[in-house]
Amino acid sequence: MARNTENVLAAALIALLLAPSAYAAKVSCHLTYGGETRVVEAAPTSDPYTVAPVAIGSYFLFRIVFRDQPADLAGIKLTTFADRNEGPVVIHQATYPYPPPSAAAGGFTGRHVVEPVRDGELQYWCEMKEAP
What we know:
By secondary structure, this protein is mostly beta strands.
């Protein structure tokens, strides 16, 4: 009986160690606008259509969609919108594989500069952060 208990516990431990963690990693983007820098983070999502953009200043919206599963759809999509009176308009989009290639300074994206016709510029770079 003790042997069966040990086998069940060992199998449960192995399953736990091999199971994908829902929040094992997150995307962390460093956005600079109007001389102010802030960090926006995103955990993996299974439903990209529910991810809302974050307002950056009075003109930009920034959206991070991070999918780590299923493998054929895994990736990171970064979208910058101009928040116009008629509604948001995509002005910049970048897509990266997951896991992204390792990178040193400037994260996996390098530094991006988004300059619309008016209202300054948005600069950003993103990196992967492992959850504790």
